[in-house]
Specification:
heterodimer; A: alpha+beta; five-stranded antiparallel β-sheet; 4 helices; B: 20 strands
């Protein structure tokens, strides 16, 4: 089944490659991967979406937890969590569909980032299903030229926080 | 006892200020100073362009710190190939419990150590490999002797540190040793660009890298104590058992828990079987020791596993060579308990009913004390009398045996003859294959750290360099490399290393003219098609090879009647000695639990009594490995 795995990593060269190789070594495809520094610049948060056997994923998580640079790791799949993804998409625009694009973007909680003579760059965010739906509807209105999806970012609902008991800087 | 505790760094109080703290040093000098601080007694390595500054620093350090007897504090032992250096570091680590160190150059020097690094990871052996790297500015430009070491090693080591910030060099090195020896031990690689070795730095004497996640997880395991409720749950289950069995792995050796394990087994009267890596954890000459279990374990150990109703795994991981079919492994056991230090090993292969993560000695001692305090009477009412009688009968009925009347030299007889002299008082290393299994089966093992073998990776060529490393760790002990003709070929260049350093290592080559173990599988599973495993037409003369490398004793043994005399003179020889034994090329390793087979399907051969009628199956392509 689909798994959403969240990880806090020390912001070290090679840390991301080591974690990713845990999946590739087993032939597991990473559906999406987002990683960026957190409010602690020494710590990155990584969200990884993969599809695989539950037992194998559980083993990968246990093995990943042994990676020196990993601060904390959790499988959010079975927990009450929120998912969010961002889409930046460039579409063709002309006199006949420009108004329709603008209306659709507004209705879909999107933003027009750029208006060219014959193009529009749009930004949408939301759950993966919402983004997929937006893309499907856009294709009815206009032609998609190129797009970039951020991949899923996820966070647990409520007071639960992924992290170490001690601050990351402690030696 | 606990060699790791003797290492200076462990004894050094963190609050103490290093006498060299604040001194200006080059990166290379810092490397050498940290090695000295960490208690490294010998460095195994091969020089080259990108590691020259460190080699120069070692030279200067040894010159400046020369002992009054002319001894160097950090002798540099040069192998024929960097793979040899890696396995020497492993042999040193396995025999002593201390961290072994290999020092190599960039590119090919580093990639030649990939195999020993992976091997150390697979067997949880603490080594630190220090590699030179091209200068920081040249990384990624396809420079001369450049290889992406951090990427390559990242997939096979416990950790890799690429030092791009010279100010973190000292902290990185010290942290490398900490990671290598702590928790489940393993190899750590430190990749040091040449400009970092030449950088002018200030020595701190105590700096370490922040690795809060690792340290927090480690602390959770090391601080973990078995709680009274957990003791009660364990003892309640044990109290109901009639046929308990200890299944002991390399974790007991790595965790220095041999004493605690033996006390535990004795206090409760529980028989012990060990894995290949666990040999030496229990004294195999004791009545309740069942020697090794698994694919080539003793028949009596494997039958005991089938018969036990309570299995206690200690530092063992239900590896495929032990539990080929996890579901059928110890099928009669109504309760399985597991002790380990690695959370990833719990429920990995076999679901267990009870487990404890923490120091093995501490947990085993706690259970023993809890039992004594609560009046748990292990021997009461002849609790295990039947089980002990059953074990004794299994050992008698299904004893190890072979064709003792053959006109050809039987490999088992060679090991038995050596064992008659050593009786466990020798360090034995091996290559990989049949000779490795015969050595595991026919030697007595009385103490830990005297059995050095590539267990998980199964690396041919391990034996000779490992023996060299072990001899440096234990100058006082007899070190014997039991090798095969195919295995020793892989690192034959290290014969020269033995004589260069005048090490009294005893090298035995059991020559069956090819890859015996693979031939055994081809015989069983590929209808006897010996694809690429027969070397009987090769022109190799091992005796000439040993003589060419300066072995003062190099003898070929090919007559059965000479066996006792030659073995005795070989072992007694004062200096490097090489013995080639022409063995029965058809000798097989029995018992054998085929890949993907259960213990009930164990093949015991002609000379070991089986209790299950063997059902010959038409062999086809085997999925298992």
């Amino acid at each position: 089944m689909r798994h959403i795995i969240s990880m806090l990593l020390q912001n070290e060269a090679g840390a991301l490659a080591r974690v990713a190789s845990m999946f590739s070594a087993r032939g597991y495809n990473i559906e999406s991967l987002t990683v960026a520094a957190t409010h602690d610049p020494l710590v990155s948060r990584l969200t990884l979406v993969t599809i695989g056997d539950d037992a194998v994923i559980a083993q990968i998580i246990k093995q990943s937890r042994k990676t020196i640079d990993v601060l904390e790791i959790a499988d959010l799949t079975s927990r009450d969590h929120l998912e969010c993804e961002m889409l930046v998409v460039k579409v063709t625009a002309n006199a006949t569909n420009a108004a329709e694009i603008a209306r659709f973007t507004e209705l879909s909680f999107g933003i027009i980032l750029d208006e060219g003579e014959t193009t529009r760059v749009l930004q949408f965010s939301g759950r993966g299903a919402h983004i997929t739906g937006v893309l499907a509807e856009l294709t009815d209105i206009t032609t998609i030229l190129e797009l970039a999806r951020s991949g899923t970012a996820a966070i647990e609902r409520g007071t639960s926080v992924l992290g170490l008991a001690e601050p990351a800087l402690a030696v | 006892m606990n060699a790791m505790l003797q290492e200076r760094s462990e004894a050094m109080n963190d609050a103490e200020v290093h006498p060299l703290s604040g001194v200006r040093m080059s990166g290379a000098d810092i490397v050498v100073q940290v090695l000295a601080d960490e208690g490294v007694g010998v460095i195994f390595g091969y020089s080259g362009g990108a590691i020259l500054p460190v080699y120069d620093a070692v030279f200067r350090y040894n010159h400046e710190q020369l002992g009054s007897d002319g001894s160097e504090p950090l002798p540099l032992i040069v192998p024929a190939n960097e793979q040899g250096a890696g396995f020497m570091a492993q042999g040193y680590a396995r025999a002593s419990g201390k961290v072994g160190v290999a020092l190599v150059t960039s590119g090919p020097g580093a990639t030649n150590t990939v195999t020993p690094v992976r091997d150390a990871m697979a067997d949880s052996i603490p080594i630190v490999v220090i590699c030179g790297q091209v200068p920081t500015a040249a990384i990624g430009t396809d420079a001369f002797q450049e290889a992406p070491v951090s990427t390559i090693m990242g997939s096979c080591a416990k950790h890799v540190l690429l030092v791009t910030d010279a100010s973190l060099l000292e902290a990185s090195l010290r942290t490398a040793f900490e990671i290598a020896r702590s928790g489940r031990p393993g190899p750590v690689v430190v990749d040091i660009p040449k400009d970092v070795q030449n950088a002018e730095l200030i020595f701190s004497g105590s700096s370490r890298l922040p690795i809060p996640g690792y340290r927090a997880r480690l602390k959770a395991v090391t601080d973990s104590r078995l709680q009274p409720t957990e003791c009660t749950a364990f003892l309640d289950a044990l109290g109901k058992a009639k046929r308990p069995l200890l299944y002991v792995g390399g974790g007991v050796i790595a965790g220095e828990a041999t004493r605690a394990l033996r006390s535990f087994a004795e206090a409760f009267g529980i028989p012990v079987t060990t894995t290949l890596m666990g040999l030496g954890a229990s004294d195999t000459t004791e009545p309740l020791s069942l020697h090794m279990l698994g694919m080539h374990g003793t028949a009596y150990a494997n039958y005991a596993v089938c018969d036990c109703d309570f299995l206690i795994a200690v530092g063992a991981r239900f590896d495929d060579r032990v539990a080929g079919v996890p579901r059928q492994f110890a099928e009669e056991a109504r309760f399985i308990a597991q002790f380990d230090v690695d959370p990833a090993e719990i429920d990995k292969v076999k679901q267990v009913d009870w487990h404890h993560l923490g120091d093995l000695s501490d947990a085993l001692d706690a259970l023993r004390k809890h039992a004594a305090a609560t009046g748990f009477d292990a021997y009461g009412q002849g609790r295990y009398a039947d089980w002990h009688a059953h074990i004794a009968a299994l050992k008698k009925t299904h004893a190890m045996n072979f064709d003792r009347d053959s006109a050809l030299i039987q490999p088992y007889a060679v090991i038995e003859e050596i064992n008659r002299i050593t009786r466990g008082n020798a360090i034995v290393s091996t290559g990989v294959g049949q000779h490795q299994m015969w050595a595991a089966q026919y030697f007595d093992f009385t103490e830990p750290r005297r059995w050095l073998t590539s267990g998980s990776m199964g690396t041919m060529g391990f034996g000779l360099p490992a023996a060299i490393g072990a001899q440096f760790a234990r100058r006082d002990m007899l070190v014997i490399d039991i090798d095969g003709d195919a295995s020793i070929r892989m690192n034959l260049g290290e014969l020269e290393t033995v004589t260069t350093y005048d090490l009294p290592v005893k090298v035995v080559v059991l020559n069956n003219c090819g890859d015996g173990m693979v031939r055994q599988w081809q015989k069983l599973f590929f209808k006897g098609r010996f694809s690429a495993t027969d070397k009987s037409l090769h022109k190799k003369d091992f005796i000439k090879a040993a003589e060419a490398d300066g072995f003062p004793y190099a003898v070929r043994l090919d007559r059965v009647e000479d066996l006792p005399r030659v073995i005795a003179e070989f072992i007694a020889f004062d200096g490097p000695a090489f013995l080639e034994v022409m063995i029965d090329p058809d000798a097989c390793v029995y018992p054998m639990v085929g890949p993907g087979a259960s213990y009930a399907q164990m093949i015991t051969g002609e000379h070991i009594t089986s209790r299950d009628p063997f059902v010959a199956e038409e062999s086809g392509p085997v999925e298992m490995f």
